[in-house]
């Protein structure tokens, strides 16, 4: 191996080993605008109603910045708005349930309500209403079950993979929510269906996008161009300058 080839390899190795920008920060649950999403929906008998939310971020989410909005019977204006509470850690889930639900649901519930919750023909949106950093207003939709402003009759979907008298659970391959509340909704595309009053999956969710492997990449992206980013940039620039000088130096 020549000296020139060796020096080129050294520059490449140093830069790639220290630069977080070379780590794929999008290899987990989508991007930072859409990685909180519904992972389970229970529309069972009586008051057995619950929603599970999965955190695909690599950082904890302050749920006080999020709301659940329920649109009844094809209405384009929410009839119920519920502000969430607590902190949701990466890869964990949050369960909102009717306070009068079956004890099996309440045993895993993080928040309960006696507000009028959804039926099979009601659209549900997960909306971020404030930023994680400074509390400024955002009003960003992360996920929608159903189609806002459209009444499907009694339900979306058919069989067990429908929104009436069933439990539907997000497929493990889904990496972020459906942020477009106006598009057509077919549960079978992203959800697995289960018979009425199936509660066994509530309280945990498995997703191929669990963010443990990308924590470093996302954290450095949020903290800005410091630390290893600066070192990598300096090494890269110095390496290029030195390599150009070496390759074009006058012959002895």
In short:
The protein has four helices and 14 strands. It is of the alpha+beta class and 252 residues long.
Task: Give a description of the structure.
The protein has four helices and 14 strands. The protein is of the alpha+beta class and 252 residues long. The protein has a six-stranded mixed sheet, with no helix packed on it. A four-stranded antiparallel sheet has the order 5-4-9-10, with no helix packed on it. Strands 3-6 form a two-stranded antiparallel sheet. Helix 2 (103-106) links the parallel strand 7 (93-98) and strand 8 (111-113). Helix 1 (3-18) packs antiparallel against helix 4 (228-247).
Entry keywords:
single chain, 252 residues, alpha+beta, 2 domains, 6-stranded mixed sheet, 4-stranded antiparallel sheet, 27% strand, globular
The total tally of domains equals 2
Sequence of strands across the biggest β-sheet: 8-7-2-1-13-14
Share of residues in strands: 25-35%
Query: How do the helices and strands follow one another from N- to C-terminus?
Result: HEEEEEEEHEEEEEEEHH
H/I helix tally:
4
Roughly how many Å apart are the termini? 21 Å
Ranges where pLDDT stays below 50 over 5 or more residues in a row are 5-28, 30-34, 210-238
In helices, the fraction of residues equals 10-25%
Query: Rounded to an integer, what's the Rg over CA atoms?
Result: 24 Å
Biggest beta-sheet profile: 6 strands, mixed
Shape: globular
Task: Give the tally of β-strands.
Answer: 14
- Helix vs. strand class: alpha+beta
Q: What is the average of the pLDDT values?
A: 79
């Amino acid at each position: 191996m020549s000296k020139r080839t060796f020096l080129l390899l050294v520059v490449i190795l140093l830069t790639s080993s220290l630069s977080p920008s070379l780590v794929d920060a999008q290899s987990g649950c989508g991007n930072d605008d859409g990685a909180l999403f519904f992972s389970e929906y229970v529309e069972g008998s009586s008051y057995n109603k619950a929603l599970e939310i999965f955190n695909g971020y690599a950082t904890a989410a302050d749920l006080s910045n999020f709301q659940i909005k329920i649109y009844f019977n094809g209405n384009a204006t929410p009839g119920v708005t519920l502000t969430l509470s607590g902190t949701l850690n990466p890869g964990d889930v949050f369960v909102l349930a009717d306070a009068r639900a079956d004890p099996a649901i309440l045993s895993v519930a993080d928040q309960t309500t006696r507000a009028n919750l959804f039926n099979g023909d009601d659209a549900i949106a997960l909306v971020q209403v404030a930023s994680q950093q400074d509390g400024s207003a955002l009003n960003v939709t992360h996920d929608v079950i159903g189609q806002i402003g459209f009444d499907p009759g009694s339900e979306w979907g058919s069989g067990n993979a429908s929104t009436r008298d069933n439990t539907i659970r997000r497929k493990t391959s889904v990496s972020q929510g459906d942020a477009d509340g106006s598009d057509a909704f077919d549960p079978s595309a992203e959800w697995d269906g289960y018979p009425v009053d199936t509660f066994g999956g509530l309280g945990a969710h498995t997703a191929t996008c669990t963010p443990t492997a990308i924590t470093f990449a996302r954290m450095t992206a949020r903290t800005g161009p410091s630390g290893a980013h600066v070192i990598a940039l300096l090494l890269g620039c110095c390496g290029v300058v030195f390599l150009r000088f070496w390759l074009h130096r006058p012959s002895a």
